[in-house]
Amino acid sequence: MGTGADVRDILELTGGDNEGPISKKDFINSDKKKAKKTTETLTFKRPEGMHREVYALLYSDKKDAPPLLPSDTTQGYRTVKAKLGCKRVRPWKWMPFTNPARRDGTVFHHWRRLAEEGKDYPFARFNKVVQVPVYSEQEYQMYLHDDGWTKAETDHLFDLCKRFDLRFIVVHDRYDHQQYRKRSVEDLKERYYSICGKLTKDRAASGAEPKIYIFDAGHERRRKEQLERLFNRTPDQVAEEEYLMQELRKIESRKKEREKKAQDLQKLITAADTNTEMRRAERKATKKKLPMKRETEKPTLPEMAGIKFPDFKSAGVTLRSQRMKLPSSVGQKKIKAIEQILTEREVDLNPMPTEEIVQMFNELRSELVLVYELKQAHGNCEYEQQMLRHRYEALLKAGGGAPVGPLGGGGLETPGGPEVSVWPGPDDIKGEAKEQIIDVVGAPLTPNSRKRRESASSSSSIKKMKKP
Q: Is the CB of residue 453 less than 8 Å from the CB of residue 436?
């Protein structure tokens, strides 16, 4: 009796681990096992950390190497197959043609449909020719005469303009400078366009206003001169210009910051004045015992005037204590400052929320925030003033002078009075540092001015050494 291994060998099945007799399961599940093993051999697990696109370049599903050239593996055509009719193909012929743009009559040959034989060259419509005006002898004597130009030179100019389609660089290159005066490109343009304008104005119909092109030769000369100067700059000049541009941007940014701070400070001052006027109006109203509603008589405050508490006008029941809750727009620093001041003044942070207490407590905290912002603005102003004073002293030292007064160590003594500090005026500063380029905002000096300052200091030290 044959064993299971013999039967598997006859049926071309893979050998198993068990070498015992053949069972019913070996015949029934033989196809499934074969399919399972083939699928296992074809699947490859992507390495960990490798992207899917990179792994797809290495192997395909059949473990094939990636193609060297793009290939189409899809079955069939990508597009619909062309439907070729049974009609006869249109005949083509090798025929001669001439280009209208050429004046030498050269004959060329190309393939063309037989039905188009005898027609004009299709690309002849792109041959655009500039219409150069033509003037008569009488028109030249009446309108176009110029002392700086002769008629022969003007005719030569218009002939070149017609030959080279107003390419004035080429016209200037082919201009006969030996027979006529040496002219620049701007001179040629100015003469040509002035004649065109005069002819257009003279030939226009009565009552019509023609459009005349005016060429500004002076502006064109200045533009080219400026471009030439810009091109001929040295590297030191380019570096100095970039440095000055950076300093200009810094000055403008500082100016914008100062303007913004000044606007914010003005808003705070306006808010404080408004609150003061409101209190005075309330005091007068209480003295006269006139019925007056606080909401109607209360003037509108600016946006930065203290705290803007939300109004609960929605339908339904609300707690009065919610009106005492600070809005989210108030920062943590302001909240801590309010709590610190209230704690120092022994004021309850959560008082009984009656109608009068809620209103007065909210007004108190709004005024505390306003005072806090005013103190911050005042501190910033003092800091900027101190910085400007230090810069002023540095500029005076750089210019060779020293401030007069308590900061400089000197002063003026009045008879019978204390010493009075006097700061030098602008004329004194100009006299001490004539060759210095000083930035009023406090920016550092330019590189060239530094060089001049170093040379001036070295020359002054040499003079001091020569003195006995």
A: yes
Closest listed residue to residue 4, CA positions, set 15, 35, 33: 15
Separation of first and last alpha carbons in the chain: 136
pLDDT digits (tens, 9 = 90+) for 60-102: 556 666 666 666 655 555 566 666 777 788 899 999 999 888 8
Considering only CA atoms, which of 412, 400, 413, 406 is closest in space to residue 459?
400
Which has more pLDDT, 256 or 468?
Answer: 256
Closest CA to 218 of 176, 168, 180, 184: 184
Residue whose token pair is 């395909």: 60
Sequence-ordered list of residues with C-beta below 8 angstroms from that of 16, at least 6 positions apart, any chain: 4, 8
Task: Measure the CA angle with vertex 200, ends 194 and 203; round to 5°.
Answer: 135
The answer to whether 261 touches 380, Cβ cutoff 8 Å, is: yes
pLDDT of amino acid 365: 83
Beta bridge partners of 420: 412
* 431-462 residue pLDDT tens: 444 444 444 444 444 555 555 556 555 555 55
More confident residue, 259 or 320: 259
Provide the greatest CA pair distance for the chain.
145
| Contact between residue 342 and residue 247 where contact means Cβ atoms under 8 Å apart | no
**What's the predicted TM-score (pTM) here?**
0.41
DSSP 109: E
Q: Is 149 helix (H, G, I), strand (E, B) or coil?
A: strand
Contact assessment for residue 401 and residue 432, using Cβ atoms and an 8 Å cutoff: yes
Q: Are strands 92-98 and 419-420 parallel, antiparallel or unpaired?
A: unpaired
Q: Which two tokens stand for residue 456?
A: 């001036």
Q: 389-411, pLDDT tens digit by residue?
A: 888 898 888 876 544 444 444 44
Distance of CA 273 to the CA centre of its chain: 41
Q: Is 113 left (phi over 0), alpha (psi -120 to 50) or beta?
A: beta
Q: Is the pLDDT of residue 174 over 70?
A: yes
Which phi and psi angles does 217 have, rounded to 5°? -70, -35
110, β-bridge pairs: 95
Asked whether residue 135 carries a pLDDT value surpassing 70, the answer given is yes
Find how far residue 357's CA is from the centre of its chain.
54
- Angle at which helices 185-203 and 217-231 pack, to 10 degrees? 160
Q: For residues 308 and 214, give the distance between their C-alpha atoms in angstroms, rounded to a whole number.
A: 63
What is the DSSP annotation of 452-466?
HHHHHHHHHHHHHHH
**What is the sign, positive or negative, of the torsion defined by CA atoms of 59, 64, 65, 66?**
negative
* SS3 assignment, position 79: coil
